[in-house]
Design brief:
Oligomer: single chain
Radius of gyration: 22 Å
GO molecular function: metal ion binding; sulfuric ester hydrolase activity
Organism: Potamilus streckersoni
Strand content: 5-15%
Cofactor: Ca(2+)
Strand order of the largest sheet: 1-2-5-6
Distance between the termini: 26 Å
Family: Belongs to the sulfatase family.
Number of helices: 8
Structural class: alpha+beta
Domain Sulfatase N-terminal: 6-215
Length: 369
């Protein structure tokens, strides 16, 4: 079962959720849209399976998705049926929108962007809480694994803050790439209530969840089974990973052990952004306001072609040690070059006018490729 954002392609029906293995889908195809009207640009974008669907007018999207998730749970017998529920909420992605009652919780935060963002987090928390309450009431918790995770750092230009990490979403800095997660189960975890700091990559979720479900694993995939690492706090089998290799931006980053090598420019948001302050303190309160107070941000102006950091000793990436350890830089450059040999060429075509919603009754729709 898939709910909310898809964002994995929709120019052809074969790329959409119900053609990719999901029994049902409720959500939208694009990367973002209005939380109330479900409009992106000139088109409406909301589906129930393959049909255009109009939720109750004015309903905030996290509530729509929580209600749909609960409806799905009502139709499943936890004692006799298995269930995979994929629920990547729209929150807290832009645009910044939230019912006023949630924003007012943070009335002591001066900056409006940050105030709305915090309200969106509270609304999301409430929606997740409503779903987990039903999971417990219906008896799902006896044999359930709940994974709550993120796919990137926060956009500091939209009220988020990644302090003490450096940078923001769209950059190669830890603030743009390091995700946080928690895993919960009443029965499946051998060790609980601990902080896991092992190296785990987003691609590792797939084989890990297959392991938990007792399904066969395909050896020819990028991910690694992290269940012993998560369940027992064992050492991670992963010692390296690629952050990204971008042929268009001409940048890349790789992690090997404790070391991280950045090739080219890490991105536009280079600083350590100040924490938001409360009403009455008129310093910079979010990255959005920080442009007014440049003394509140630490900037880095030099652009070396390679940067090296020890992420274990320097998780905030303050100290570039490339000049100190040229041998490490060279070894990591060679490892990065090996990964580049298997790189799939980027396919970043220009906008296709055939996708214009005007050809599909004002909706974003498959059928143009």
């Amino acid at each position: 079962m898939a709910l909310t954002i898809w964002h994995l392609g929709f120019c052809n029906w074969k790329y959409t959720p119900t053609y990719r293995g999901f029994d049902t889908f409720t959500g939208y195809y694009n990367g973002e849209e209005d939380y109330y009207t479900h409009v992106r640009g000139d088109g409406y974008d909301f589906r129930f399976n393959t049909d255009v669907y109009h939720p109750p007018q004015g309903e905030y999207s996290p509530n729509v998705f929580a209600q749909r998730a609960i409806a799905i749970l009502d139709d499943v017998d936890p004692n006799n049926e298995s269930l995979f529920l994929y629920l990547p909420f729209q929150s807290v992605h832009g645009p910044l929108e939230v019912p006023k009652k949630y924003e007012q919780i943070y009335s002591n935060i001066h900056d409006k962007n940050r105030r709305i963002y915090c309200g969106m987090v509270s609304a999301l928390d409430e929606a997740v809480g409503n779903i987990t309450a039903v999971l417990r009431e219906r008896g799902f918790m006896d044999n359930l694994l709940l994974v709550f995770t993120s796919d990137n750092g926060g956009p500091t230009y939209l009220g988020a803050n990644n302090l003490p990490l450096r940078g923001a979403k769209t950059t190669l800095w830890e603030g743009g790439t390091k995700g946080t997660s928690f895993v919960y189960s009443d029965t499946l975890l051998k060790k609980t209530k601990y902080l896991n700091t092992e190296i785990i990559h987003a691609v590792d979720w797939f084989p890990t969840l297959l392991r938990v479900a007792g399904a066969p694993q395909d050896a020819d995939i990028d991910g690694m089974d992290m269940w012993p690492t998560i369940s027992e706090n064992n050492t991670s089998p992963r010692t390296e990973f690629i952050y990204n290799i971008d042929e268009i931006k001409k940048n890349a980053a790789i992690r090997v052990g404790d070391y991280k090598l950045i090739e080219g420019s890490p991105g536009a948001y280079n600083g350590w952004y100040p924490l938001p302050t409360l009403e009455g303190d008129h310093r910079a309160e979010s990255s959005y306001d920080s442009a007014k107070y440049p003394d509140q941000i630490v900037y880095v102006s030099d652009e070396p072609n390679y940067r090296l950091f020890n992420i274990k000793d320097d998780p905030t990436e303050h100290f570039d040690i490339a000049d100190k350890y040229p041998d490490v830089v060279e070894k990591m450059k060679q490892r990065l070059a090996e990964y580049k040999k298997s790189l799939v060429p980027a396919n970043y075509p220009p906008p296709d006018p055939k996708s214009d919603p005007k050809y599909y009754n004002g909706t974003w729709s498959p059928g143009w490729c």
